[in-house]
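Quick one, probably user error.
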């Protein structure tokens, strides 16, 4: 970073930039508890991002479908989006350091006794993935999905859990933390059976994409302090305990 950027970051953190000079940051987020809780404007991501940004940067949360995040950044609807990876190749984007991780796994009911050790084992099963899962879970998964006539994707993760527990799906695939959170809230289907999961995919590391390099640099500086202070771990623990 050049001297001007460091000076800008320092002024922001010290609160010495006049409010009129510190623009409101419109932050596009995909609402999915416990990462983003729309009803309260809280969750892991809003808390981490707000805490890492300088106090003078005010965030306005803009809730978007996952499929609209990239388009909303590109057309200028928002100033930043999360979660995203650099593979999105967003024009004019400045990416933060990794601020959140997701662990996508393959869930099944323990009573079924499915022996799932590899992606290939999903090939003959009724598998449901999250929207655009074939773009995020690697080439082997995409090939399996293409050759498996019983593969499908749904926008509602709650409905994926309902289908698993009602016997209409053998396997559902999405993030472990989200699954546990949503499962605890479903009341119209008996979800008391124990579940099993296979860790077939690497941990996904996500970043924030900013339109402003200065804001991205300031966020990275704040994120490093957040992690070294222990506050980052405290936020994660609060929502995943």
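Nope, works fine. Designed sequence:
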């Amino acid at each position: 970073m050049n001297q001007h950027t460091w000076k800008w970051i320092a002024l922001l953190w010290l609160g010495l930039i006049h409010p009129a000079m510190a623009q409101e940051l419109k932050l596009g987020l995909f609402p999915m508890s416990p990462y983003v809780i729309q009803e309260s404007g809280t969750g892991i991501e809003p808390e981490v991002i707000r805490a890492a940004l300088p106090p003078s940067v005010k965030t306005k949360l803009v809730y978007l479908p996952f499929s609209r995040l990239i388009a909303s950044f590109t057309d200028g609807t928002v100033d930043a989006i999360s979660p995203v990876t650099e593979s999105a190749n967003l024009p004019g984007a400045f990416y933060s350091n990794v601020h959140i991780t997701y662990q996508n796994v393959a869930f099944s009911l323990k009573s079924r006794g499915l022996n799932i050790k590899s992606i290939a084992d999903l090939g003959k099963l009724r598998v449901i993935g999250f929207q655009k899962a074939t773009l995020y879970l690697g080439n082997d998964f995409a090939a399996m999905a293409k050759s498996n006539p019983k593969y499908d994707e749904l926008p509602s993760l709650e409905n994926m859990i309902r289908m698993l527990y009602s016997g209409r799906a053998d396997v559902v695939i999405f993030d472990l933390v989200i699954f546990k959170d949503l499962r605890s809230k479903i009341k119209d289907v008996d979800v008391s059976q124990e579940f099993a999961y296979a860790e077939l995919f690497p941990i996904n590391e996500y970043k924030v994409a900013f339109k402003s390099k200065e804001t991205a640099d300031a966020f990275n500086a704040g994120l490093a302090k957040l992690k070294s202070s222990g506050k980052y771990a405290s936020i994660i623990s609060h929502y995943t305990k």
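The chain has a mean pLDDT of 91.
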